[in-house]
């Protein structure tokens, strides 16, 4: 894909994520109290005030911020880095872009999208109670849970990247998911609620299984991204490998 088209795609995608966050925080603003309590959006204990009006308790919002940052990094790379398959020297911004997609942007986006719509199909009250329909527009729901998958698939198909070693990539993903897991328990300890209603109906052993399965699912999505990338860019990766081998022989 040509640089102007690629830069336009990255720029518009980043803008639409940032605008969605602005709309949620400043146009919708505070959710009604009954919606907060039903959805578990913020702790009911007023002693603890969370930033971003409590939205950051959700993995969905962590992912939305992550996607906005990632596509901004892509845009900076378009102008100040490179999208070439085998440049003479790889800029730091390009290395950051490649690592972010592999370890964070792709697996977390698909995790959020697939998990959300699966639970919606089973019982929407577990993830998106009907009471939210009155204050949360449908298009914003799709930005947070549908577009993240669509634009990530477009990104992996339209610009080349070299995946990090599996060890380094999974280490980054594991750290990200561990941070969110710790955050969930901090909210539970100080706020007295589980952010997601589904966790309320599970006992301790079931929650442990739930978290282990979620982590395993994330690892599976990382491997899917790695496979998908190698499938789409087979020719370029062979070219890159051949070039590296030639340099070593010389």
Could you characterize what this model shows?
This protein is 73% helix and 0% strand. It has 250 residues and is mainly α. The longest helix has 32 residues, at 92-123. Residues 38-48 have low confidence and may be disordered.
Number of strands: 0
Percentage of residues in strands: under 5%
- State the major sheet: none
The secondary structure category is mainly alpha
Number of helical stretches of at least 4 residues? 9
Low-confidence stretches: 38-48
Element pattern in H and E = HHHHHHHHH
Secondary structure elements and their pairing?
Elements: H1 3-28, H2 33-39, H3 59-80, H4 92-123, H5 138-158, H6 166-191, H7 197-200, H8 204-232, H9 234-249
Helix pairs in contact: 1-3, 1-5, 3-4, 4-5, 4-6, 4-8, 6-8
Characteristics of this structure?
single chain; 250 residues; mainly alpha
Short description:
With 250 residues, the chain is mainly alpha-helical. 73% of the residues lie in helices and 0% in strands.
């Amino acid at each position: 894909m040509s640089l102007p088209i690629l830069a336009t795609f990255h720029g518009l995608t980043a803008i639409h994520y940032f605008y969605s966050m602005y709309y949620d925080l400043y146009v919708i603003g505070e959710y009604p109290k009954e919606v907060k309590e039903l959805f578990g959006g913020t702790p009911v204990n007023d002693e603890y005030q969370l930033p971003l009006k409590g939205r950051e308790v959700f993995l969905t919002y962590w992912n939305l911020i992550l996607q906005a940052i990632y596509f901004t990094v892509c845009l900076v790379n378009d102008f100040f880095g490179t999208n070439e398959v085998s440049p003479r020297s790889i800029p730091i911004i390009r290395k950051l872009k490649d690592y972010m997609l592999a370890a964070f942007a792709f697996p977390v986006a698909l995790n959020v999208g697939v998990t959300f719509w699966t639970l919606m199909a089973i019982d929407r009250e577990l993830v998106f109670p009907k009471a939210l329909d009155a204050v949360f527009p449908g298009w914003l729901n799709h930005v947070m849970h549908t577009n993240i998958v669509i634009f990530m698939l477009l990104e992996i198909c339209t610009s080349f990247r070299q995946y990090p070693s599996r060890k380094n990539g999974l280490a980054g993903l594991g750290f990200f998911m561990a941070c969110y897991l710790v955050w969930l328990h901090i909210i539970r300890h100080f706020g007295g609620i589980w952010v997601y209603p589904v966790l309320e109906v599970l006992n301790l052993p079931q929650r442990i299984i739930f978290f282990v399965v979620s982590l395993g699912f994330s690892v599976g999505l990382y491997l899917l991204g790695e496979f998908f990338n190698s499938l789409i860019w087979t020719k370029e990766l062979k070219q890159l490998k051949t070039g590296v081998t030639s340099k070593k022989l010389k």
